[in-house]
Amino acid sequence: MVKAYIASGIFPGASFAIVNGSEIEKYVIGNDSLKPEIRPLQPDMAYDLASVSKVVGTGTVVINLIFSGKLALDALLTDYYPDFEGGQVTIRQLLTHTSGVDPFIKNRNRLAYDQLRVALNQVKITDDKSFHYSDVNFILLGFMLETIFQQDLDVILQTQVFQPFGMTRTSFTAPKQTVRTAWELPRGVVHDPKAQVLGVHTGSAGLFSDLDDLVRFCQAYFSDTRYLKLLQNYAQADDMPRSLAWDILDETSENGVQWLIHTGYTGTFLMINLVTKQAVIFLSNRVHLHDDRLQWLKNRNLLIKLFVNLMKIV
């Protein structure tokens, strides 16, 4: 199916790994870029993770603080981050995208860093607590972490996640061997416009990583039994069950939630089964030549179903 998607132009290439306990299979298929020249993918290439950054970075730090008793799930954001002026919202609501945040910021893409940060601290919290996915939720969580640790977010992620997990090639700074996203962007420039401005302070996107590091990330989750507590619905809204930071995959077992997943705009997704210790890491550069998001969503959902069914028989 991956080769068929490449042939039909859904994405130029893909790198993916199938993790089954200690057994790991890696595949690298297709091209890194088609413009301005055709370049084949290499096994060690890093990708722009887009929103997969939410679970690999900020989400995992916040989860660890909650599970260690250092952060109260139902505390107000302003208990830890008093600079926020938009209203009352809890850590749980931010993690599950049920915050009621109104993410609209006038002329957002024209704002410099200081201006955008002020605007984000003033976004309004509405009374609508149904599920509405928004990067702003995790940007605010990232700001909160910087206040708690009194460090920039990139330093926090390195010391709290990447170094303990043995991840040496995950960073806000793209390594030399990085897959190109949109062809009009220079190689190594993050695709997300908010991350372009916020840089190392972005809690929602902006990380670059490769298959090897993301395999280490999954194995770290497997080895820590605390993460089994993620296998439940934490959202208080009735319309969309969510774990903390992670989405709950519809394809669950008769024993309840098993698969957690997060996707990224650039053509990435990470799905992990903490019960069977299985994972699928899928990295592509689907925004390289064109951005047909609706078609990608259909193709991505088919890929996810394929991988879920495959993992039942491996």
UniProtKB/TrEMBL annotation:
One of its GO terms (molecular function) is hydrolase activity. It comes from Pseudolactococcus hodotermopsidis. Keywords: Hydrolase. This is Serine hydrolase. The keyword DNA repair does not apply. Pfam families: Beta-lactamase. Residues 2-295 form the Beta-lactamase-related domain.
